[in-house]
Amino acid sequence: MKGNPELIKVLNALLSDELSAINQYIVHSEMNADWGYQKLHEYFEKRSIDEMKHAEKLIGRILFLEGIPIVTNYQPIKIGSDLIKQLENDHHSEEGAIQAYNAAIAFASEVRDFATKEILENILNDEDRHIDEIEELQDQIGHMTLPIFLTTQVE
């Protein structure tokens, strides 16, 4: 099914964001593993896998719409040198993703591609959950202090 060319461009822009997020989260995951924070390692690793699933859905939709997935474009990847910076960078990335998905959903509605809209809404729900979980970790750090919080992340 030949899709709207502008919508395919939007989907490729979202794909670029997701591919960038995969890399950012996996580096944060491995940094935390190196520091001995196994629970944070697993948290960031799971987040990276979630972003991979989003990329997979976007690629599948682009192909369905007879577009070409562009997997070579990346956004700047912001690696935090410590957990606080990692969470700040990830929060910023998720905020951008939420804005981008909301705009894409509106555009998909405008061009009357409701199947794409539904796919994007499902991904948006995940992104909302991601930012909520980041804020939860930030709140825990605020309540406990960073040193105490980090003691809870070791297995």
From TrEMBL:
Binding site for Fe cation 1: 18, 51, 54, 127
Residues bound to heme b: 52
UniProtKB keywords: Coiled coil, Heme, Iron, Iron storage, Metal-binding
Residue runs in coiled coils: 84-140
Keyword check for Heme: yes
GO molecular function: ferric iron binding; ferroxidase activity; heme binding
E.C. no: 1.16.3.1
An annotated GO cellular component: cytosol
PROSITE patterns registered for this protein in UniProt: FERRITIN_LIKE
Annotated ranges, domain Ferritin-like diiron: 1-145
Catalytic activity from the UniProt record: 4 Fe(2+) + O2 + 4 H(+) = 4 Fe(3+) + 2 H2O
Amino-acid positions noted as binding Fe cation 3 in the UniProt annotation, renumbered to this chain: 50
Family: Belongs to the bacterioferritin family.
PANTHER family named among the record's database cross-references: BACTERIOFERRITIN
Role according to the record: Iron-storage protein, whose ferroxidase center binds Fe(2+), oxidizes it using dioxygen to Fe(3+), and participates in the subsequent Fe(3+) oxide mineral core formation within the central cavity of the BFR protein shell.
Protein name according to UniProt: Bacterioferritin
Organism of origin: Flexilinea flocculi
Classification of source organism: Bacteria, Bacillati, Chloroflexota, Anaerolineae, Anaerolineales
